[in-house]
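Re-run with default settings, no changes from the original entry. Doing this only to confirm the output is reproducible before filing.
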Amino acid sequence: MAPLADELAQRFVAGGYRLYLVGGSVRDALLGRLGGADGVDADLDFTTDARPDAVQRLLSGWADRQWDTGIAFGTVGATWRGQTVEITTFRADRYDRLSRNPIVAFGDTIEGDLLRRDFTVNAMAVELTSPDGRRFVDPHNGLAALAARLLDTPAAPEESFADDPLRMLRACRFVSTLGFEVVPRVRAAMTEMAGELERITAERVQAELTKLILGAHSRAGLELLVDTGLAEHVLPELPAMRLAMDEHMQHKDVYTHSLVVLEQAISREEPGKPDLVLRLAALLHDIGKPKTRKLEADGRVSFHHHEVVGAKMTRARLRALKYPKAIIDDVAQLVYLHLRFHGYGNGEWTDSAVRRYVTDAGPLLERLHQLVRSDCTTRNRRRAAALQHSYDTLEERIVALRKQEELDAIRPDLDGNQIMALLGISPGPLVGKAYRHLLALRMERGPLGTAQAEAELRSWAAEQGISQ
């Protein structure tokens, strides 16, 4: 923290105020994560007995820049030599418990401020202005909880979650990102109060869910989400998958299978670069199975066209969660395509079929590779090896075709201007129809060359009754 913290402390001491490093900054420092390690922001959070206007005066002439977008909640933000800090006046908020918006009230003590925080591991502080040097403040035994990797609340969890139901979802997020466990009383309160999450806006729910899914222990976070009933109010399609046996009869349910696929997809990511689109697709790829489940005459269970139904369900759920359109489109397309490979069999696909596979995947092809490989969860080693070998051969064919044809940019051998010139037609639907015909020939037969393409176009025009 030095010299930033030391300089800040000197200014607050000179002004007659106290200053504390607090919350997640203290937690992450104790975990060895402060300063940007493990993808954690290096931003520092402070709290003080100084009111916001006094904080602004103390920062004036010291900070490179400051802002007051959070001043209604007692927070002043600033940067100093590229380092971001937020300084918040002690809080003693009350909540109307109809929303999660606090009725802001400033407090007078660090102990009162820490009591209102979400978890004991976030309710620790380091006083920087103590006459005896830095002083560790831990009225709720957060350090012991941190050492035991446990999540508990400073106040009774029922009170904490009634004030802000989003804290229940944040508990699942911390399980995912920090590898912690919730204590029994917190789990019980989350289960009892899961419905309170309906008070929270979709945007805030989505932000927490995204952090959860991107965590290093996302399966554990999702299992807590489901086991407490919170998922019914966030991602109800996830617990619904517990009702459907998968077609290989290798898993207790599709839910468990999907969590395994998620873990395997994570293992295929580039280290340190979690992929939200891939993880969402892995988690949701089979959400269409409960709606398409059918018991066949031979006693087996089938899920015909679950990828089509699942893609539609994926779009609907991600829209409800207010995800950006680009993410929705990509995840839904991966869900839609995840079964396409299983038609490959022992390599019977024609070059045309391989081209279509690549063209339909487009820029998602590498993610599709990862998803399909991750979707192999059979315990039969021979079958697993055969599936992986089959996909190896498909990837090899894709590479070979790319070299031959620049597959990623497949276009007909004639463009729109050439089509209009050859047929003597003006811009309009007929040009598009001719273009699509040539594109289909290109997909089916590979490059034709200009002369052959022109001959094919003339033949097609004659069949369509187009005079040339």
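The CA atoms of residues 61 and 166 lie 38 Å apart. Residues 264-409 form one domain.
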